Task: structure prediction
Amino acid sequence: SPAPPAAPLPIAVGTQLAEVPTATPGQSNYELAGIHVDGLGYSLTVSNGDESLSISNRCWYPNPEITNLANAYCRTNENITLMGTAQLGDGTGEATPELETFEVIRQSDGVTVVNDTEGNAMLDFDNLEAGRYRVIYTFDTVDGDPDGSHPGCAQSIEQVFEILEVDCGAFFWDGN
Result:
């Protein structure tokens, strides 16, 4: 299929599934790659000539956001623990995560300064250099296998913030 935002192409009747050997001798898994479109259902029937199996589903990906990250901080600001939420893609409410990760990358050299999979990503301004940082927040509503073997409905967003070299004194400035 072409890349989004183009619509995916239907899988042609007669397409064979790819055999993927397993660790157990004599057993295999079969895979069929496709593109799932958010909020658009799918159905699939496969057959080996004797038996048929049908599946269908319709789901929405979560829409995550970082909820407490300002555009700029002073070196003297209190430390913060990053937080995020996600709304269900169909607009029916908040999604419940099974795995949330925050990665904070210093833009000047690409070094990851925070890599958190426990939901405790702290920005310790005493230990961070002045400059720009990119925060990647990943929200996953499925099994949450940390090894990535089951990424499911994982969605990531990014936000940039800056740590200012100056002492901002008694007032808070968010960079705007």
Observations:
- Residues 47 and 145 are 30 Å apart (CA to CA).
- The longest strand covers residues 131-140.
- Residues 143-151 have pLDDT under 50 and may be disordered.
- The chain has no helices and 13 strands.
